[in-house]
Amino acid sequence: MSNQNSCKEIFITTPIYYVNDVAHIGHAYTTIIADMLARYSRLVGYDTFFLTGTDEHGQKIETSAKAKGKTAKEYADEVSGKFKQLWDDFDISYDKFIRTTNEDHKIGVQKAFEKMYQKGDIYKGNYEGNYCVGCETFFTDAQLIEGEGCPDCGRATSRVKEESYFFRLSNYEDKLLKLYEQNPEFILPKAKAKEIVNFVQGGLNDLSISRTSFDWGIKLPKSMNDDNHVMYVWLDALLNYITALGYGTDEKNMKYWPAKVQLVGKDILRFHAIYWPAFLMSLDLPLPDHIAAHGWWTRDGQKMSKSKGNVVNPKEIADAYGLDAFRYFMLREVPFGQDGDFSQKALMDRINSDLGNDLGNLLNRIQGMSGKYFDFKINSKDVKKYHQKELDEIDAILNNVEQYIFNMQLNRYLEEIWKVLTIANKAIGDYEPWAMMKNNQEEQAMALVALIVNIMAKVSILLQSVMPEKILKIANSLGIEINTDLYNKLIVQKDLVDQTTIVKIDALFPRIEQPLLPSADIQEVESKVEKPRKEQDKHTQDNQEEDNLITIDQFFQTTLKVGTIIEAQEVPKSKKLLKLQVDLGEGQTKQILAGIKEYYSANELIDTQVCVVANLKPAKLMGMESQGMLLAAKDENGLSLLRPESKKIAGTKIS
Ligand code: ME8
User: Fold this and answer.
1) What is the mean pLDDT of residues 213-221?
2) Which residue has the higher pLDDT, 4 or 404?
3) What pLDDT is attached to residue 265?
4) Model pLDDT for residues 167-192, shown as the tens digit of each residue
5) For a substitution probing ligand 1, which of 79, 231, 233, 267 has the most ligand atoms within 8 Å of its CB?
């Protein structure tokens, strides 16, 4: 490990969060990771800038505000304020909280638009296609589910036909492919890059970057002389990463560009790994080192959703279990990039085992031994004489951990540090300082206790970014101050704390025997987290399936039943949909809209049997409610409904 680059600038970003939602565990996750990176890089001595903020324009926000009887700006002020408050409560060390309604952001975005236009990357045309307001994304007909549904969230899209400015994304296809090839770590984790490469190889359409059908957005620059258009919210939003540094206004902080790491959830990787570098290339700006995409959090094995009432409110968890324990859990529990599950049990296990037994208990032992044998006064002068082997072992580990930070193997980073704690706990058992004291080997006992104090000091330095508040307490107890100088002395130069006086403090992580929040009491926050995602690219399916293995219990959360179709009708004006009434036994009939019209006529379906997903939340398609789904298999030869081999009683469960 080295901090040769002590003047190096490091820029770290989170996505800017939509203000139609209240912060939940997913937002907290991204923000905590970014905060950890920022704190780490400041401690190492890098000149660090950490950006977060809120994304406030677009049709979705305009519609949500109207529904609440507020102006879009009033609504944005209110929700943005709540995000900021939460990050302040969480002591998130952001250097700037950007709002896309800020005046300097608007100026910067307009300047960027002008530059892209002058470059010939923007032209005016007509857009005709499908728009999902929930995802603020355009889709071609071929991308839709059953002719109507958004491929990302499943909700109905609306048909848009309007004049629009386009960004020549198609011109960047080759440049993007070259970027991914030459910078295999541009997208992290690397496995995720494959999806993006496949997507780009499939061909890129030019991107519609303006809208005329609503107002809540940034106007085009005056020089365009076209007042009818507002900018597409993703162009506006992505540019926040440079306008926050003063692009187009006061550019002194542009020295932080390009970003070291831009954190995103896997749902918005495509925007950041395709559109964003293309926009930057168009602006002749350098590209970020890493776009790092994390996975999705579920709760007790289930997707979080408002309707299920199981959305995790991060503030409540942090208030009950402690902010630092929550931070540690989030960073340690799940390998970056994979989906993770939140449960109080998993959190308690981490607190009791890793934090209580391994870390907290080691500090207790230090306090006990130093107090009992040495009146709390510790001197390191003989540590090297007796424990060079242990020192070499721990320094080898700790000198190697920085790589895991910036390539986003954060759980690995913590695992390595925990190996060092294990060495310390083991050394106490192996050398038995109490026996040494009995045998008048005071010098050896002091060397051993001092070794443990030094290990604790080194570990604390490297855990400061993860658990700032608890580590401050540990540092106070060890009589040290964690700062860049101490980092250089203990980690870079592998030196020791010369002498110190230990201070007794209360247990840091008292054992938790029972969940602190009765499950039903974990307050739900309003959320839109339920985003059933359809994968865009079938080549990535295998990978995804490996990532998303489910348990048998999760499988049985789906109720599959045999149903008998008792009525079938065509849906007027729909090319694909048939409206079916399906008998599911015991007097239960469900209306199901199925996209099978091209393969089956309504008449031939009546009195036939089908397999039905019977516990699906109702959805609206073409203004009608669909209360279930039929199982079917589709390949290049067409679509076949799955049916029982012989007739079964309607409502028979499938397992
Ligand atoms: O997409 N698990 O904003 P957003 C993990 N404004 N992370 C989750 C999550 C979950 N269950 N749910 C949400 C937007 N997230 C745009 C971004 S950036 C120029 C514009 C996290 O409010 C995850 O980081 O919908 C995701 O990317 C982010 O919240 C989306 O927040």
Assistant:
1) 94
2) 404
3) 96
4) 999 999 999 999 999 999 999 999 89
5) 267
List, for residues 348-407, the tens digit of each pLDDT value. Answer: 999 999 999 999 999 999 999 999 999 999 999 999 999 999 999 999 999 999 999 988
The answer on 376 and 452 residing in a single domain is yes
Quick check: bond before 572 cis, omega within 30? no
**Same-domain pairing of 429 and 565:** no
Nearest CA to ligand 1 atom 10: 26
Task: Please check whether residues 445 and 558 belong to one and the same domain.
Answer: no
CB contact set of 176 (below 8 Å; sequence gap of 6+): 200, 204, 274, 277, 278
* CA 175 to mean position of chain CA atoms: 27
State the CATH number of the domain containing residue 474.
1.10.730.10
Query: What is the DSSP secondary structure assignment for residue 229, as one 8-state letter?
Result: -
What pLDDT is recorded for position 374? Answer: 98
Q: Which of 468, 501, 534 is the last residue of a domain?
A: 501
265 Cα: distance to centroid of ligand 1 (angstroms): 6
pTM given for the model: 0.79
Poorest-confidence range of 248-257, 316-325, 471-480, 610-619?
610-619
Residue 89, in any domain of the structure: no
What is the rounded distance in angstroms from the CA atom of residue 10 to the CA atom of residue 484? 16
Q: For 519-543, write each residue's pLDDT tens digit.
A: 644 433 333 333 333 333 333 333 3
Tokens 């080691």, residue located: 362
Counting other chains too, the contacts that 249-253 makes at CB distance below 8 Å and 24 or more residues apart are 249/104, 249/107, 249/108, 250/104, 253/49
Residue 413 lies in domain: 342-501
**Number of residues in the chain:** 655
- Residues near ligand 1 (Cβ within 6 A): 15-18, 21, 26-27, 29-30, 55, 237-238, 240, 264-265, 267-268, 296-297, 304, 529
The residues facing 55 across adjacent strands are 18
| Cα–Cα distance, 391 to 455 (Å, whole number) | 8
Q: Is the peptide bond before 288 cis (omega within 30 degrees of 0)?
A: no
Distance in Å, CA 177 to ligand 1 centroid: 25
Assess whether 423 and 571 both reside in one domain.
Answer: no
**562 and 635 belong to one structural domain:** yes
Domain assignment present for 412 = yes
Mean pLDDT of 410-422: 97
487 and 562, same domain (yes or no):
no
**Residue at 573 is within a domain:** yes
Distance 385 CA to ligand 1 centre (A): 53
Q: Are 95 and 270 in contact (CB under 8 A)?
A: no
Given a cut of 80, is residue 157 above it in pLDDT? Answer: yes
Same domain, yes or no: 369 and 490: yes
Unique residue bearing structure tokens 């980073």: 413
- Residue pLDDT, tens place only, 34-92: 999 999 999 999 999 999 999 999 998 999 999 999 999 999 999 999 999 999 999 99
**C-alpha distances in angstroms, 256 versus 12, 291, 651?**
9, 16, 62
Do 290 and 408 meet the contact criterion of CB atoms below 8 Å apart?
yes
* Residue 384 Cα to chain centre, angstroms: 43
Q: Do both 493 and 592 map to the same domain?
A: no
Confidence of residue 7 (pLDDT cuts 50, 70, 90): low
Nearest ligand 1 atom to the CA of 297 is 2
From 24, 32, 55, mutation site for ligand 1 pocket: most ligand atoms within 8 A of C-beta: 55
